[in-house]
């Protein structure tokens, strides 16, 4: 199952709370029982906002509430907004942090010193010279 990121509940004291992995291409916030992240507050709309993952695996936040708009990093927005790692979305007085998954880091090749690289190049040239001179002598006989 792919993981497109995670949504971290920010507790009222500022610490991290429950973490919701984003394993679907859509996450709906609201009061309805069908919502992925359900908030049982009377001021929260049945469908308050949603996060969709687009074809580029980019998370896009859409506000669905006219009465109490969702805020992104403390500001209201009208059009769907691409999320950045660490963005904070706020619904009424509840805040959530969006995080993209950690990228797997490619394994590094062992680094060589310039001296090692020069020795490697010399060895390759010597090997090539032996192969080509051996071929010539074989052809001459």
UniProtKB/TrEMBL annotation:
Designated name of the protein: KI67 protein
Domain FHA: 27-77
Residue intervals passing through the bilayer: none
Top-rank lineage group of the source organism: Eukaryota
Gene Ontology cellular component terms for the protein in this record: chromosome; nucleus
InterPro entries in alphabetical order: FHA_dom, SMAD_FHA_dom_sf
GO BP of this protein: regulation of chromosome segregation; regulation of mitotic nuclear division
């Amino acid at each position: 199952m792919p993981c497109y990121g995670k949504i971290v509940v920010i507790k009222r004291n500022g610490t991290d709370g429950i973490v919701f992995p984003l394993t679907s291409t859509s996450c709906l916030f609201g009061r309805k029982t069908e919502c992925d992240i359900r908030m049982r507050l009377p001021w929260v709309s049945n469908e308050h906002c949603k996060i969709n993952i687009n074809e580029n695996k980019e998370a896009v936040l859409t506000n669905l509430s006219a009465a109490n708009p969702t805020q992104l990093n403390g500001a209201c927005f009208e059009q769907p907004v691409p999320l950045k790692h660490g963005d904070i979305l706020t619904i009424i007085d509840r805040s959530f942090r969006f995080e993209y998954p950690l990228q797997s880091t490619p394994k590094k090749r062992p680094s060589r010193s310039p001296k090692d690289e020069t020795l490697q190049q010399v060895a390759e040239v010597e090997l090539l010279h032996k192969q080509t001179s051996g071929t010539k002598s074989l052809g001459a006989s």
